[in-house]
Amino acid sequence: MKETLDFFAKNLIDWYLDNKRDLPWRSTKDPYFIWLSEIILQQTRVAQGTPYYLAFTSAFPDVKSLAGAPQEKVLKLWQGLGYYSRARNLHTAAKYIVSELSGEFPDTYEGLLDLKGVGDYTASAVGSICFDLPTAVVDGNVYRVLSRLFGIATPINTTQGVKDFKALAQQLLDTSNSGTYNQALMEFGARFCVPQNPSCEQCIFQYKCDAYKNKQVANLPVKLKKLKIKKRYFNYIVVLSKEHQTILRQRTNKGIWQQLYEFPLVETQKEVDQSQLQEAPQCVEILTTNAIDSLTLYQEKSVIHKLSHQHLYTRFWIAETKSKLPQGVPIEKIDHYAVPVLISNFISEFEGFK
After folding, report:
1. 2-142+157-209: which CATH topology?
2. Three-class secondary structure of residue 331 per DSSP
3. Catalytic one of 3, 38, 100, 300
4. Considering the domain 230-353, what is its CATH architecture?
5. How far apart are CA 151 and CA 164, in angstroms?
6. Residue range 112-137: average pLDDT?
7. What span, in angstroms and rounded, lies between the C-alpha atoms of 312 and 175?
8. Using the 8-state DSSP alphabet, how is residue 237 labeled?
9. Mean pLDDT over residues 75-102, rounded?
10. From CA 81, how far away is CA 34, in angstroms rounded?
11. Residue 5 vs residue 159, higher pLDDT
């Protein structure tokens, strides 16, 4: 086993030093930039996350500027990345670092875990890269590489799987070069030992790989099936006034898109036609309060917006009024608000907002 461990670490780091991508956060060990990159890259591909990282570092060059920013500005910059709790947690953690830690990042694993939104993976990544802490990272890439190399069929989304893979990752860790090793392992999984059709014939670990020898590459790692996807039916009432205003409401309840803005929403149990929609109490309140003269469906076919645990079947209804809106938002300022990508896409294509 020791021979395998030594072989793995040495060859992995050699491969990484020859093949690593030139990414903007790899030129520093500043914990602010490493932490920011890791939060952005949670459940986000590097190609998609990099422009956001550059935008955030430009707008907030240090943790103090991030902490001092209005939450709405943080959410607006995050718009389109999804999983908005990451942005809210990022902002909360920045304020904690500035107010409670005098602007200094914690340099221990336990201290990093105390930051809002930081779990084992992020604490291990930031700790090893910035402070040379001997903490192994385990993410989707790591699960994939280790399960295949060692032929481990324990489901990765179970308590036992999390425990076993963390223990193995820690055992494999090159503690004298933990930051480079962790980055190498993640890079190898992201670029070489990929989920579909990995290049096993060119793999540097081919003859050590249990899954390759036993033709199990396509079957590993094992992940238990997710819960059933929930379907929800959203009807957005897009109010247009003669004064070129509309209405936006902030989502304050817990759940998806907390603190983001959207048009007045009527959620129904199924897709409804206009007469059914207008019978809904929420719709009646919107139409009455804003003295709506006409209501028309923007597009017959629902937009299906897929989230990890639910699918949103969405229709936009155009509501016109000659009255002044008591809480109207000038349409020319609508881009100032942080909105879900579903709303952003509609705003971009709707001629009434141009």
Report:
1. Endonuclease III; domain 1 (1.10.340)
2. helix
3. 38
4. Alpha-Beta Complex (3.90)
5. 13
6. 97
7. 46
8. E
9. 96
10. 18
11. 159
